[in-house]
């Protein structure tokens, strides 16, 4: 009689699961913070443009006479560029291409909705049942999801940094040009 040895199943330790869970939660919270920063910056600039336009129209002769169109143009351009960048940050990702990032075996992460939102329910249930029974697949999918959350977060943070820098420089240039125009007159 031949006795077959059973290989012990590789399970994710509780420590690893907690680390992955904590990292994902932190990245999601940071993404939420990034979205809030972009939203505040977008709202602030939209309000500035909203109040700026009626004032410019109502006082156009004074603005032309005192050459205040340079600082106002700088401020307007700053606001519009900042609004544009913040809109890019807040714009949802294009989900149609997520399943194109399969690995060699045609596997994709069942834990990210962008990968399965077009599947039929039974197709999804069968796929997740098959995927969830293989610990190596779970590890790979969790790592992949963590990677893509981190990339999206880095994208948002870089663009928000650009938006803040443009906003700060634009405000400074507007104030500087206003001071120079008024000092010359």
Shape: elongated
Mean pLDDT: 85
Unreliable runs: none
Order of helices and strands: HHHHHH
Overall number of strands = 0
Overall tally of domains: 1
**Termini separation:** 105 Å
CA radius of gyration: 26 Å
Number of helices, where a helix is a run of at least 4 consecutive DSSP H or I residues? 6
- What percentage of residues falls in helices of 4 or more residues? over 70%
Biggest sheet, open or closed, and with what strands and sense? none
Assembly context of the chains: single chain
Residue fraction in strands = under 5%
Structural class: mainly alpha
Task: Describe it.
The protein is built from 6 helices and no strands. It has one domain (29-184). Helices cover 75% and strands 0% of the residues. It has 185 residues and is an all-alpha fold.
Give the tags.
185 residues; mainly alpha; elongated
Describe how the helices and strands are arranged:
Layout: H1 14-58, H2 60-65, H3 69-90, H4 113-116, H5 121-132, H6 135-184
Could you give a quick summary of the protein structure above?
The chain is mostly helical. Helices cover 75% and strands 0% of the residues.
